[in-house]
Every structure is written in structure tokens, then in C-alpha cells.
Amino acid sequence: MLDFLMHLEQLLPTLLESYGVWIYAILFLIIFAETGSVFMFFLPGDSLLIAIGALCSTSNVLHLHYMGVSLFIASVLGYIVNYYTGRVLGLKFFHEHSKIFKPAYIQKTDHYFLKHGGKTILIARFIPFVRSFAPFAAGAGHMSVMSFMIYNVLGGWIWIALLLGLGYGAGNLLSALLGIF
User: Fold this and answer.
1) Spatial contact of 68 and 161, defined as CB atoms under 8 Å apart
2) Residues 6 or more apart from 30 whose CB is under 8 A from it?
3) Inter-axis angle of helices 45-58 and 145-180, to 10 degrees?
């Protein structure tokens, strides 16, 4: 199962053939899971988005705009869930008798997210492990909800649009080149 999830982008044509339009829901859940949980960092977000874009360029079933909206919503909702998980559970990991997580760490995290939270949430979208951990840390570090939401929406839009667009362009270019030969 883990191998299946880690190499999902290679199986997209098979999934599309087997599940048809249900692939929208499957991909929504995968992007939501990757961004919504610290423990799903191993999912292939970036390469998957590029592969989905390329598949959209050659498929009559997948439409780039619908897929983009669906995955944008999944990524934003995933970050919101991860943020509130950090907000609720983050402090439970930090107590004075903990050997790993010290209360001083949460103070440093609070200070960091006050100063650099927006940039972190925006840039984290493009760094696989950080993408899954940043919203949790932002919640645990008490980053302002409004600031988090602004950067969450902006980052999600840029991440999805850029990588789907790259894949779509590459898919069209490859189709055109193969059509010449």
C-alpha cells in the first residue's frame, strides 16, 4: 500500500481508466491527506500535481480548471485541519516533564510564527516534509488565524496553479512533439 501511494503519479492513467470521473474524489482525498496531516508527508504532492496536469492535457475526462479548483480546495482545507490540529494538540506535546518537547520550544515557535509565519506557510507548499508540518507548527505556535488563512489560500492557489500548469504545458508540448514524428 505504501509503495502504491509513493508512486501514485505513475499509476494515474490506470486509475483514470478504472475509476473515470471518480478520480477527482481520489485525488482530492490524496492532496487533502498530504496537507492535512503531519504523518502523510510521504505522499507525492509535487510530482503528483505535475503528472495530473500532464494527464489533463491528454484526457477527455479530466478538465484542468475543474481539477485545479478541486485540488485547491483540498489543499486549503487540509492546511486548515492541520493548523487546528496543531492548535489543539500542539501544547499537549509541550510540558515541563517532556524529554523531547520543552515549553521553551513553544515560546520560540510562537515568536518565529509572529515574525516569519506568512513566508513559512507560503514557501512550505513547495517543500515536501515542511508542507505537512508547517501548518501544524503554525497552529501550535499560535499564528493568527487571519494571517494563516491569507497565506494558506495564497500559497494553495500558487502551488496548485503552478504545478498543474507546468504539467499541463509539458503534456501539451510532448503531445505536439510526438504528433510531429
Assistant:
1) yes
2) 5, 8, 43, 48
3) 50
Number of domains comprising the chain: 1
Cβ neighbors of 110 (< 8 A, separation 6 or more) are 141, 142
What pTM was estimated for this model as a whole? Answer: 0.84
Question: For the chain, how big is the Rg over CA atoms in Å?
Answer: 18
Considering only CA atoms, which of 48, 58, 51, 9 is closest in space to residue 176? Answer: 58
Domain carrying residue 59: 2-180
* Nearest in space to 70 (alpha carbons), one of 133, 152, 161: 161
Pick the closest to residue 127 from 39, 55, 57, 35 (CA basis).
35
d(CA 19, CA 181): 31
Q: What are phi and psi of 142, to 5 degrees?
A: 55, 40
Instruction: Return d(Cα 118, Cα 45) in angstroms, integer.
Output: 21
Per mean pLDDT, which of 26-30, 87-91, 174-178 is the most reliable? 26-30
